[in-house]
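note to self: dont lose this again. the chain is below, predicted strucutre after it. 364 aa total, dont forget to put it in the shared folder this time
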Amino acid sequence: MSRRVVVLLLVLLSPLQLLAAEVANLYTARVDASVKLQSGLSQGFDQVLVRVSGQRAALSNALVMAQRQSVKQYLVQYGYIDDGGKRWLEVTFNQEAVDRLLRQANLPIWGSLRPMTIVWLAAEQDFERELVNEQSPLLENANLRDVLRQRGIPMMQPLLDLDDIMLVDAADIWGNFPGPAIEASSRYSADQMVMAKLYEIGGDEYQIQWSFYQLSNKQPTGIHKAWYQNQLNGSLDTLLPEWLEQMADTLGQQFATQTGLSATDSVQVKIYNLTDLARVLKAEQSLASMAMVSQVALQDFSANQAVFSVNLLGAAADFYQALALDKQLQALEPAFAESEPMNDGEDDDSEPSEPEMPAYMWQM
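---
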């Protein structure tokens, strides 16, 4: 296992490279230019369907399988580019048409706002365990760059500088003690954390075990429960790429939203710190760009705050979960209207106060 691949992983996952959780070019794919054009278009279409749905299983959907025979009706443009010393066929598909197909197939849609995931990986080699850094052994020819690009998954690896190693040891990862890694992760712009350990189980077979944790300041002190755990066996040539694929599937299942062909729900959202119409427009555009939003209308704008009516193609709960990933919006604690004071000695038969509409602070 070579140093070259370790450096590749660091380039892919470095927090200096991936600070934002907004993924660009979801509907554009790259495939090896050596394949025939029709085959390349089909491969590119498959990439986009998996990336936007968040699930490899989308390709086995009956309606999707039928439409894969008519790729050109979804095509916007294609061309050949040179990048990284390799020639690629780059294909762009129509977003509206792809989204419509996924909705017709009753498949979820995962928008461009995606959780940033920080990965703490410990590896065992020659009976020594260490956190992944520039000297750590990883597999060769793993195609990690291709997996992350094809799936549209924002991931980073900790710098493992003095600040990190003062808090986190390989034993913490190996023993599945998430507290130190969660504390160390607070300096990074991450929404999710993965702890994983990689080791040889015999012959050419290796095993990797991993756990997902939600990074949130609202967790009770000392309580850190994984929301997903799994393990995978295989040879080093295939293990890590499949691990990344499975993590992408898991994130897609958690964060992609089920949408319909027409609006099924409507909510109101209040946004503060909109000091001028330019910010109001940006906030409206931010809401309208979400995959499950069909229409946004400004209802009120006064005193640096605006109220928007948002028509949804899915459930309101999924909308709020996706909105939590928008770094431009900081959710405010729910406020309740003040009740009229009770008269001493008299029963109060009035209805309890209703919570105000969800409110956010604009961060730009």
